[in-house]
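W.,

You were right to be curious about this one. When I first looked at the sequence I had no strong expectations either way, so I just let the prediction run and decided to look at it fresh. Below is the sequence, 163 residues in total, followed by the output.
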Amino acid sequence: MTIRFRHLLAAAAAVVLASARADAQVVAGQTTITLPDTSAYSRTARRILALEVDRSAAIARHDTAWLANVYAPDFRGVAANGRRVDREALFAVFSQDDPGARFAIDELEVRDLGPAILVTGRLRTLGDGGAVAAESRYLHVYLRREARWWIVAAEGTSVPTSP
């Protein structure tokens, strides 16, 4: 993808995010993301929401070079299966992603706490016909370091799906 096209895509996403109302959707890679109402969000919270959309697209592309500019080198997390992960282990999981898989993210909330930003959401893995095959809730913690926002911690919690 050329630099110019990336800038146009980022600008289009920024316009959508700046004016998003409840139930607006964007597709990032293999993931359909239902955006929250951002009318009360700070400019920083909107920027983090845009990073979350870009992050989903980068995961689908297996673009660990891009992801390395968002996940802090000292990143630590807990996967939905309870396994502790660092950045290297998380990127290994991202590189094993099934290109045919489809995901849905909703119930997104971005909380601007000044020096930290918290993002919570629900991730659903969709099977054939759009049926929910797996579901989890997650938390991403962003901190501002070296003039950029980094994901320094994340946690996932598996949610039982209905039969």
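Here's what jumped out at me. Confidence is low (pLDDT under 50) at residues 1-12, 14-19. And, maybe more interesting for your project: The first strand starts at residue 24 and ends at 28.

Coffee later to discuss?

I.
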